[in-house]
Amino acid sequence: MQRPLIAVLIASAFLTLTAQAADLVQVYQQALANDATYASARSSLAAGEERITQGRSGLLPNISASGSNLRNDGYNAGPDGTFGLFLTDSRTKYHSNSYTVSLAQPLFDWNAWQTYQQSKLVQATSEATFAQAQQDLILRVAQAYFDVLTAQDNLTSTQAQKVATTEQLASAKRNFEVGTQTITDTHEAQAAYDLVVAQEFAAINDLDNKRTALAVVIGKASGELAPLRTGVTIEPPSPAAVDPWISSAESQNFSVVAAGLNLEIAKREISRSRAGHMPTVNLVANRTHQYNTGVNAPGTTANNNAIGVTWSVPLFSGFAVTSKVRENIALEDKARNDLEATKRNATQTARQAFLGMTSGLAQVKALEAAEVSSKSSLDSNKLGYQVGVRINIDVLNAQKLLYSTQKDLSKARYDTIMNGLRLKSAAGSLREEDLQPVNALLQH
């Protein structure tokens, strides 16, 4: 008798675990593993980390080896073109084996030096770009998560309004049958019911679209999500002034950092292109070994060792170097303007997010008060409808106002939380740990 009971308890526990709603941190962990955009950024980082090694290679020794192993067999024909008829015919047959080992160490190569300096900047740029991709993933996951919750709230509110409208329609029909209300009340209730049914279909479609958008980020269907707890308190931004956030955005925003590095790379490119007018000096050393043997000659061996310095000075290249310098000067100016545009965009984003968060907190507070007032208004209209001092449309309007206020309140909370995350992202301080306070606001 105990085995079936134990099996039921285990099955119940399993169903409880599988039915548990996923929270924001869990969804983010899924996105880390499955998001294709983030995976692409991670691969770009891995590629960028190889640039320093490649750039340094131009400053290190270049060692090479070459050789040959040849067997030759031939003859010289006599005057009549035949072999072996005259003493003037001769046969050649020999074996040659040789190899050369060479070493070249750059002593002065301005192009290689600037390339190495650029490689360090390129790797730093890839790191900044990847850090920005990490922040973008946090924002995309949070936005998709709260978009689903917003669509769920809209659907829940619409369905609650449908239930209330259905009750009002049934009440209006009964009252019309007994003669206490006119047909107008019935038509108004019917129109309200038809409208809310249409809104329900739209809300279902919107929820499906939002779930699909979240699935694109996390790589699979999201399932149920943990909603926001009732009456949560959202912390205001710290510091409470906008200027520190703007200052941080101008210097620490990862897009600004990457743009600044691109400017430094452009400056190095000018110097690298000017290397076309500069000499190059290399230390060279090589060893050559050759062994020959033939049918008419004993084996001979030749060895040669050489060490010294080689140099090369460009004299004229058809004005190509001068043109390349002018091109790179223009590209440096472009990079400088791109940096300024990126700074302005970062400061604008930080200011908008800060104002959006502060105004959102005020909006949440006002909507919380409006929700209380709307509930009182609905209760009063229901009571007035029961005693005959209010008509059916008054109750419907009060219900619609309450549901609309509740939807606006939920949306204001989601937007305020997202503006807080965007503010940290614009300032370059958004980290995975910042999801924990947001996650604590959810109903687990």
UniProtKB/TrEMBL annotation:
Record-linked Pfam families: OEP (PF02321)
Signal peptide: 1-21
This protein's UniProt keywords: Cell outer membrane, Membrane, Signal, Transmembrane, Transmembrane beta strand, Transport
The keyword Transcription regulation is annotated on this UniProt entry: no
Location(s), subcellular: Cell outer membrane
Superkingdom of this protein's organism: Bacteria
InterPro entries on file: OMP_efflux (IPR003423), T1SS_OMP_TolC (IPR010130), TolC-like (IPR051906)
Predominant location category: membrane
Family: Belongs to the outer membrane factor (OMF) (TC 1.B.17) family.
Name of the molecule in the record: TolC family outer membrane protein
Taxonomy of the source species: Bacteria, Pseudomonadati, Pseudomonadota, Betaproteobacteria, Burkholderiales
